[in-house]
Structure formats: structure tokens, C-alpha cells
Specification:
Elements: H1 9-20, E1 23-24, H2 25-32, H3 36-48, E2 52-57, E3 67-71, E4 77-82, E5 86-92, E6 98-105, H4 112-128, E7 137-142, E8 146-147, E9 152-153, H5 167-175, E10 179-183, H6 184-195, E11 204-209, E12 213-219, E13 222-223, H7 254-257, H8 260-272, H9 277-286, H10 291-299, H11 303-327, E14 331-335, H12 342-356, H13 359-362, E15 367-369, H14 375-391
Parallel strand pairs: 4-7, 7-10, 11-14, 14-15
Antiparallel strand pairs: 1-3, 2-3, 4-5, 5-6, 8-9, 11-12, 12-13
Bound molecules: zinc ion.
Length: 393
């Protein structure tokens, strides 16, 4: 996947054009620091293969006139972000801007064949609507550990029937293009690093707060996946030895203390015990409570809801403080559904991280909310798909 070998000149040319649009030959030569003759040879080859094309004369820089080069406008990249209960599918252009997008409810527990059938049907619909004729590459994020090398899920806890299923092979066969499969938190981190709040940052942590909790570890400009694709699975780090039992069987995991499912549980308990009239009212009206209700109740000034967010922020901050000391990131980005709890949560997490980490590691450490929201995952998947295609150019 190009991680072990040096990136080819073709790959570097195509990436620059993806990020900057049209560039003159002179600008390309400057940015790539390669001899002009070698660059021209490579551009000739990429032009003949319809991967790049000339886009008219560049503004004169006072010397020899240069011609603008751009990526072929025919490039189409598919992006799939599969969650536990829904899927988002996009078709992106050469600059990874979405040309068409569709979202649908899907239960990941119904197994790989029915779920991937939905994915293929959604892509078929986008093709019928004219978003593409043939995909050049497809990127897919799954809500569990993935062997990036093999393109298969590895013992994913919330995905019965998916362990070892050949997701990459099946989709590549069905859509007749190269496919790359990764963990959903990783693709969000990649998206945020490519076009979000962390775009100028090499070393950052992307924290996904949803039903569960995961961390994308982006170091030296790349996602760190670990041996089995499980790196960043921080939801099962223990934060309270006397805490509630987690779905994984251990006690007091971060995810059992804080996270979408834990918040809903604690909010329901508080409502039933008469500790929060606001939550009790919402429970009576809707029949169930979610993290969203906790956020709404907190916004209305409900002290119990505010207390739940504070306690969660403290648990999360404690784990993050450890990660900060370990990885020395230059930014922490918080995304996922619980990011909707917003600045109250952020304030609590910040307070704990800044007070518990070494001053050297937090001297200038922004802790911010995701800019991309739902698009982080699909942008990251599209970026991975284009990387794969460009590596083969
Ligand atoms: Zn656990």
C-alpha cells in the first residue's frame, strides 16, 4: 500500500494536483524538487494514460511560459462510511468534492452479504442518476477492527458474521475497480487531516464519540493502525475499577462509563429515580432517552444532565491525558454523535487534560471539535481510494 516503499513520482504528482487543482509545470517542478526533464517525461506518460491533461497556459512568471496541468476530470471515487445503524455513500470528483451522496438506515448486525448488497444498490442508484459511469476506486470504512492489508474485518465485536469476510474482494469484483477497506475511526481521522480542522497538522488524535468510543492515531502524516488494525480502540481502557460492567465483560471501561449507550442508560436511571424532572418529561414523551436528550436537558440548565456530561468529560479527559503523554500530538479533534454535546463537554475534557498532562506535552495543544461532521468519514474513504489509484499509476 505504498507505506513500505518510497512514493513514486507519479503518485506525488497526482496527489499535488488533487490538493491544489491545476498547477504549472514550473510549479510542479519546484514543489517536487525533481529535474525538469524527468518531470516532463512523467507528465507525458500520465497524459498518454489519460490521468492528467493540459489546462491552458499558466500566468507568466517572467521567464519561459509554462503550461497548466490538471487531473483528468473523468476521475470518480466512491466512498462508503458504514456505521452500526446507517450507511453514507458518496461519489467524489478528482478533488474529492462530493458529486452525489445518499444515506440510508442499515443494521450492521444483519451480516455482510445483506449489508454490502445495500451498499451496491446505493452505488447503482448514484450511477443511474448520472454521478459516474465507472468508478476508478472505492474506499470503505467499517465500524470495527479491519486488517488494512487484507481488506477484511478482524473479530469485530458489534458485527456478527463479518469476521474474515472478504469485503474488499467482493466489492472489487462487483464494481470492477480497486477497493480499500479501513476502520471507520481511521477514515474519519484521514478525512479530518485531509480537508478538516487538522489539515495542516502531521500529528493529531481524532476522537470519535458515538455509541462507542474510538481514537484515530495520526502520526507523521499517516494513520497508525497497529499489527491487527486495533490501534486506538481506547473504549476499553479502564477508568473506574468499581464502575459498571462493560459489554466486553470487563469492569469500568471508558465506554461503559461514558459514550452514547452509557449516557442513555444513566439518563434513564436519573429520570426514573426522580433526579431530573426535565429528563423524566422527555422520557415520558418519547419512551426512551439518548445522548441527544442529555444535551438538550443540559442546555435547558438541568443540573443532573450537566453532571452526567461533566462526569463523562472527566473520564474521557483522564484517558486522553494518558494518550497525550504517550503520543505528544499537536492537536486533538473530537467528532462523532456526542460531539453534539459541544462546548460543555469540551470544557470539561480540556480542564482534565491540561491539568493532568505534562506541561511540555500540552504547552500548545488545541482540543477542538470536528469541522467536517458526517463528511469526515466519506472524505477519508475517498482519499484512501484515490491514494490507492494514484499508487498504481
Ligand atoms: Zn469494555
Amino acid at each position: 500500500m505504498g507505506e513500505a516503499v518510497a512514493d513514486s513520482l507519479a503518485y506525488r504528482v497526482l496527489c499535488l494536483l488533487r490538493e491544489h487543482g491545476a498547477l504549472s509545470r514550473a510549479e510542479l517542478a519546484d514543489r517536487l524538487a525533481v529535474p525538469r526533464a524527468r518531470l516532463l517525461g512523467e507528465l507525458g506518460r500520465l497524459t498518454a494514460a489519460d490521468q492528467v491533461r493540459e489546462a491552458g497556459p499558466a500566468a507568466s512568471r517572467g521567464g519561459r511560459r509554462s503550461t497548466l496541468i490538471e487531473l483528468s476530470p473523468a476521475y470518480r471515487f466512491g466512498a462508503v462510511d458504514l456505521g452500526a445503524t446507517s450507511v453514507r455513500v458518496e461519489v467524489c470528483d478528482r478533488g474529492l468534492e462530493p458529486l452525489a451522496a445518499v444515506e440510508q438506515a442499515v443494521d450492521i448486525r444483519s451480516g455482510p452479504r445483506p449489508v454490502l448488497k445495500v451498499v451496491s444498490e446505493l452505488l447503482g442508484k448514484l450511477r443511474a442518476d448520472g454521478a459516474f459511469r465507472q468508478l476508478d476506486g472505492l474506499g470503505v470504512g467499517l465500524p470495527g477492527p479491519v486488517s488494512f492489508r487484507d481488506g477484511v474485518p478482524v473479530s469485530p465485536p458489534i458485527m456478527p458474521g463479518w469476521d474474515g469476510f472478504p469485503v474488499r474482494e467482493l466489492l472489487a469484483h462487483e464494481h470492477n475497480c480497486p477497493v480499500v477497506v479501513d476502520n471507520d475511526v481511521n477514515i474519519m481521522a484521514i478525512g479530518e487531516g485531509y480537508g478538516g480542522v487538522a489539515r495542516s497538522v502531521e500529528d493529531f488524535l481524532y476522537l470519535k464519540l458515538g455509541t462507542g468510543i474510538g481514537c484515530g492515531i495520526h502520526l507523521g502524516g499517516r494513520v497508525f493502525r497497529g499489527k491487527d488494525g486495533c490501534a486506538g480502540d481506547i473504549g476499553h481502557i479502564q477508568v473506574d475499577p468499581n464502575g459498571p460492567v462493560c459489554a466486553c465483560g470487563n469492569t469500568g471501561c471508558l465506554e461503559a462509563v461514558f459514550g452514547g449507550a452509557a449516557l442513555a442508560r444513566d439518563a434513564t436511571a436519573a429520570a426514573r429515580a426522580g433526579r431530573s424532572p426535565v429528563l423524566a418529561e422527555r422520557l415520558a414523551a418519547a419512551g426512551a432517552l439518548s445522548a441527544y436528550d442529555v444535551g438538550q436537558a443540559a442546555a435547558a440548565g438541568d443540573p443532573t444532565a450537566i453532571g452526567l456530561i461533566r462526569a463523562g468529560g472527566t473520564a474521557l479527559g483522564t484517558v486522553l491525558a494518558g494518550l497525550v503523554s504517550f503520543a505528544n500530538p499537536s492537536m486533538i479533534v473530537i467528532g462523532g454523535g456526542l460531539a453534539g454535546l459541544g462546548h460543555r463537554l469540551l470544557a470539561e475534557v480540556r480542564a482534565v487534560v491540561y491539568s493532568r498532562s505534562l506541561p511540555l506535552a500540552t504547552g500548545n495543544l488545541p482540543l477542538v471539535l470536528s469541522e467536517l461532521g458526517d463528511r469526515a468519514g466519506t472524505l477519508g474513504a475517498a482519499r484512501l481510494a484515490s491514494d490507492l489509484v494514484f499508487h498504481q499509476a
